[in-house]
Amino acid sequence: METVVIDGVTLYLSHPDELDIPVYERKEILNQILACWLTVDEKDLPLTPRLIGKPGVGKTTLAYLAAKKLNKEVYIFQATVDTRPEDLIITPVISEDKKIRYIASPIVSAMIKGGVAIIDEANRMSEKSWASLAPLLDSRRYVESVIAGIKIKAHKDFRLCVTMNEDASTFELPEYIQSRLQPQIFIDFPEAEEEKHILKTNLPWLEDTTINYLVDFLQITHQYGEPYSVRDGVNIGRYVAKKLAFLTQTSPSTQIAVLEVLKEAIGLILGPQALVYFKEFIEKGKKFKKPVLFTID
User: Fold this and answer.
1) What is the rounded CA–CA span in Å between residue 93 and residue 99?
2) pTM here?
3) pLDDT digits (tens, 9 = 90+) for 163-208
4) How many Å apart are CA 4 and CA 43, to the nearest integer?
5) Could you count the other beta carbons within 10 Å of the beta carbon of residue 59?
């Protein structure tokens, strides 16, 4: 592990994250994030944007992609309801030689290296944890570790972004933190054409007809305010592809109705309550009166 010494204390840095995931660029959102991180004067400071949206709309992926556009290392911290202040800054561990090692969190590692830190699902943290980051989120740009007894200042190139889910299992942010996490960038479900591109990017092996079915189904659920996301669509599509491949191996010389496999996938992944939207999807799609078949030679 890479180490640095601050005020006589050796810190062991976290490794940056490398995500090998297919992405579809939502340029407007990327430009908003990049604008937040820009500085226009020597005395200017970057903003810390707050990406808000339902689970699965791509908040973390977009923040990661924005950081990579700046050719920066990315450090992701996964927040939970159990996150403690020391988890966010420095954690002491006992090494093999029975000595204490101070392990810098992904956030502190990014601060030291001048990278980008992403706090994922940040509104799962308590106010006590947020309080430890307050000096980092304003013009002071530092954190203090009570455990190691040191103050750590952020590199001038350090950037920070937080993602927050819109659901009931989160804490309300204290006002003094809300004012430090600005602007708020709301990420909604993508439009149909955009959703199609995202699914095709993640499922290049899936035929266009099935991709179109998935998009039509998801768009119906979006209209009713359901939380089903493009991530769910990817999982449904993966199951459909796997089930068809399985049937190819086990049931040669037959034809399988793709929509039946799609219905099965929706029920398994989203639950039986989602099948009411599948029924509407079928009723609205007059072109689906004839069963679409997947031929197994």
Assistant:
1) 8
2) 0.84
3) 998 875 667 888 999 999 999 999 988 889 989 988 998 899 999 9
4) 27
5) 25
